[in-house]
Amino acid sequence: MKAKFSPLQLLDFKLLESHVEFVVPEEVELDVKELFQSYSVDIDFGLRNNEDEQEIQLFTIIQVNSGEDDTLSGYKIMVEGGGTFRIQNPEELEENLKNNLTQFSTLNMMINNLRNIIYQITNLGPMGGYLLPPIDITQLLRDKAGSKID
Asked: What is the pLDDT of residues 56-83, one digit of tens each?
């Protein structure tokens, strides 16, 4: 099947910062999959539209198992990335589609790029690769909008 390209283009992606720390487990026998599923995940992002150049810039930070008091053994991870996007012919798109591409799709692409980086940087670690679970992008956007109102 021939793929149809999206009007949303990822022009540039950069890894701005990354940090992985290994916290040695106290237990000898440990279910790594269960441990990974119990990690807390915190995601923050900032979106900036550059109307002149019709570009969208999105900065995203993902922190895994990095709470001050509740850090578990294994990996403690932080990655930050920045992406530049453009929508081709935005004037030809319906407003709902344009909003979906600008918010939902850009954030989804950034999280997926950072997910791959997290897996790559942990893959050679003592517990193998950590694969960030699927994220509810809609809820992230709702939470972000709610935090601006408060």
From this structure: 999 999 999 997 777 899 999 999 999 9
Of all helices (H) and strands (E), which one includes residue 112?
helix 106-122
pTM of the model: 0.91
Give the Cα separation of 38 and 70 in Å (integer): 11
CB atoms within 10 A of CB 64: 22
pLDDT tens by residue, 102-145: 999 999 999 999 999 999 999 999 999 999 999 999 999 999 88
Enter the tokens of residue 67: 């709470």
Sketch out the chain's domains with CATH numbers.
Answer: 8-139 (3.10.420.10)
